[in-house]
Amino acid sequence: MKKRKYKRPPKYRTSSKKRRLNLRCCISWAILMATILIGIALVISAYLFFPQRTNILLLGLDYTDPWNDIGRTDTMILSTFVMPDGYVGLLSIPRDLWVSIPGIGGNRINTAHYFAESQQAGFGPVKAVETVEQNFQVDIDHFVRIRFEGFKEVVNAMGGLDIYLPEPMAGYPAGEHHLTGNKALAFTRNRLGSDDFFRMARGQLVLQAIYQQMLKPANWIKIPSFLQAFSAAIDSDVPFWLWPRLIFSLWYTGLDGIDNKIITRELTTPYITDSGADVLLPRWEMIHRLVNDMFGD
Known about the structure:
Elements: H1 10-49, E1 52-61, E2 73-83, E3 87-93, E4 98-101, E5 105-108, H2 111-119, H3 124-136, E6 142-147, H4 148-157, E7 161-165, E8 175-179, H5 181-189, H6 196-215, H7 223-233, E9 234-236, H8 243-253, E10 258-262, E11 268-272, E12 278-282, H9 284-295
Parallel strand pairs: 1-6, 3-10
Antiparallel strand pairs: 1-2, 2-3, 4-5, 6-9, 7-8, 11-12
């Protein structure tokens, strides 16, 4: 009897082909997904680390009526964000610095916002930016304006502010303190036994404390309420797409990498105007040297 050769049923050959086809499809999808993910990562990296300097003028608005923003800017901080260098610089400007305000003339720098806002609503930040650009010889890309009332809400949204004082300040002894929004604002603005230079130093201490507190993982749960209070408290022309880059710059730089400086008393000369007002005359040669070190390319 002739022995018949065994033949594998066709269905097995078909299943094998299907398995190979499915494997090739899986590999193709994996390669496609990996390519997409790599592309997304490259786009995000290019966005976050694109070599660019962004200068922003921070304006702290004095108490005003709820229905308008006609007020002086008691806090003025010129900031710069540079990526991928990981450099963030903050330069506090004295409110009593006597400068030339475009279209107005000589006056305290904190009045630029007041005069412009009085003439046309919403024009205050524009005039403040123009004044700083003209006198400090630096280009400013955007502004952020915050009311003092809004600042209190931001601190309260954080659950209060934990701050360390290296020495006695504004009636507080040296050491750790927990401040509510009202107390944090009063601490920043306190003028008893101090002057504008001490106020600027305290203001930068508060900013550092806010930044340090929000970096702690235990406080990340408060970030949504913090961002909500912050967005409600500010008025700014910073585009929405730029905020993630600025926030990343702060995180990337780290607290120790932030360059905090103030225009010190050595860079000014006390002066009494004809009307009897105490002001500070700028020593521009030294100020421009400092500005160039922080904001120059």
